[in-house]
Amino acid sequence: MQKLITFCCILFLGSQLFAQQLPLFSQYQDNYMAINPAMVSRDYLIHEDNLSFGASHRNQWADFENSPQTQLIRGEYLYENGSFGLLTGGYLINDQTGPTGLTGLYGRIGGILAGDPYYGGIALGLSLGVVQYRVDTRELNLRDQDDIVAADNQQQLFPDVGFGLYYYRRLESGDDLVYAGVSIPQTIGLDTEFQDETGNFFLKRMQHFYAQAGIFHFLEDESYLELAGWAKYVQGAPVNVSVNFRYQTNAAIWIGVGGSTAGSAHAETGVLIGERAGFNSNIRIGYGFDYNFSSFGPAAGVTHEISVSYSIQK
To answer: Which of 36, 110, 135, 298 is the most exposed place for a label (fewest CB within 10 A)?
Structure first.
């Protein structure tokens, strides 16, 4: 535990924080709304399900006590009206890393310009929310105890805005679907300041720049292949690119592998319960496993991520 707190202090107690601040996901295709508010859900792209709900839990660096934990709950409805699609929904996200954490509640609104939203289009999306940042100063492990006298739990509330652009298209052959997007999920840059009786410290909220791209290749036996990529950039940190490959079998099981330029390897599996089981909706349950080969990773342990979703055509 002491190692984790020391690491958190290095990240959060400088005069400014120049690093990835927003929560990360391994199965990022299933947590699209927190990445790009203009993204269209895979439930709609694959099954035409325009109403979907989902939840995920991520335990990062699992060998540590009080390791980083991220939970997300989302809901979305896509309304079609001729050549226009309306994206609505929202999500609740909670992220805790040792003595620091955030909880955010977001609503999202967007529109799809297309001849037929099912076959493709250009989407613009906006997310609006409020985020609570918090620090338990009593848990901080400082080299110089005179820097800050731990006083109490401290928290700050801030508005947040995200913006996204997304393009997707079914190719003429009907066997492939491609997509690409760019987003700034944390548009407002503010200084989050915490203060006690003897001093103060703050963390600077930085704009994050994301890019997403992928392709679905549908096979004759109703299975498909998916290749997805997610690039992340924030000032002062190196660009991080994650790539995942997933194969959905015609037996409703999927498997996947991936990795990132940060030195992590990813494996996943899951099951889709839907029409083959006599349902008129789809339930998807997935599990992801990460291992980091960077200098910090092996000491931190592995990462586990579980996701569940439900979708239906309305």
So the answer is: 298
Mode of pairing for the β-strands spanning 281-292 and 264-273 = antiparallel
* More confident site: 299 or 3: 299
Cβ neighbors of 78 (< 8 A, separation 6 or more) are 40, 41, 44, 50, 51, 85, 86, 87, 88, 112, 117
Of residues 43 and 174, more confidence is placed in: 43
- Which run of H or E residues covers position 89? strand 84-97
Q: pLDDT band at 194, cuts 50/70/90?
A: low
Structure token pair of residue 279: 């349902």
Q: How many CA atoms lie within 13 A of 74 on its CB side?
A: 27
Could you give the CA distance from residue 112 to residue 85 in angstroms, rounded to a whole number? Answer: 5
Neighbours of 172 (CB within 10 A): 7
**Cα angle at 174 between 287 and 179, to 5 degrees?**
55
Indicate the pairing of strand 51-59 with strand 264-273: unpaired
pLDDT in tens, 132-149: 988 776 655 555 555 554
Question: For the ranges 17-26, 86-95, 137-146, which has the lowest average pLDDT?
Answer: 137-146
β 191-195/84-97 pair status: unpaired
**Cα separation of 22 and 189, whole Å?**
13
The C-alpha torsion from 309 through 25 and 187 to 78, rounded to 10°, is: -20
The answer to whether 125 and 39 have CB atoms below 8 angstroms apart is yes
Tell me the chain's radius of gyration from C-alpha atoms. 20
- The pTM for the full model equals 0.83
Mean pLDDT, rounded, for 262-285 = 86
Query: Domain 2-312 in CATH: superfamily?
Result: monomeric porin ompg (2.40.160.40)
Report helix, strand or coil for 280: coil
